[in-house]
Please model this.
Amino acid sequence: MLTVLSPAKKLDLQRHRAELPSTTPALWRESERMMTKARKLSRRKLRELMHISKDLAESTWQRHQQFDTPFTDDNAHRAALCFAGDVYWGLDARTISDDDFAWAQDNVAILSGLFGILRPLDLIQPYRLEMGTRIPSRRGKNLYDFWGGSVTKRIDEQLADHVDKTVVNLASNEYCSVIMPKRLKSRLVTIAFKEIKPDGPKMIGVVAKRSRGKMARWMIDNRTERLDDLKGFNVDDYAFDGDLSTDDTWTFTRQHVEGRMVAEFQARKARNAELFAL
Model:
């Protein structure tokens, strides 16, 4: 199986786990072509395209201008350790063992507006380029057109020697839309997380993001390589819900408990303080 995640806008630029090996993004040449286009975008155009503030447009423009190749361990960061935010808090990549990272290289991928698709230890430099950005190219009018065929082909290549050729989609709608189901040779199964409330099951955005990261970590820890084994996921009281699932969308639910989100936030805050103190 191959599990796909979204990237994060928030980045952690500390030097974590320098002893780990690093790799080069598979679609590197296409990334260079896209960055050439991104570098030509003015601060004003970045604000318009990404709907961001003046300050964010300035920092984004600066990052694009500072893009420097070739990537090395000194000027770039390993993707899974660089992306921050709720998904990556759930993934907690800084505590993944060396052996488990080696396994994740073949079984986990991160979709990206600049790099197309990344392995956890692929090197990246700071950037901000969302998949929905409308940057025209010879392939079409936006990044979906630019990356769709290449990303889909790369996913099938990564799954070529896997026994179970399922793509487990833990990415957001914005990012998973780059995958072209009609051209994908593999099965695509999307995972949904819902809270059971008195008025029915509800998806809570921030909770779902954290849960996607936690499921990816659970799969890494357990070396989960067959889709049926995913039904054993039980982190944070979640359980597979057959009644709310379909062949293409598997839903995991738990009973909504008042105050649980506050407790989880406090646990996250404490965990981050512990890690950054190391």
Q: What stands out?
A: The mean pLDDT is 92. Strands lie at 2-5, 77-78, 108-112, 116-118, 123-124, 166-169, 187-197, 200-202, 239-240, 249-255.
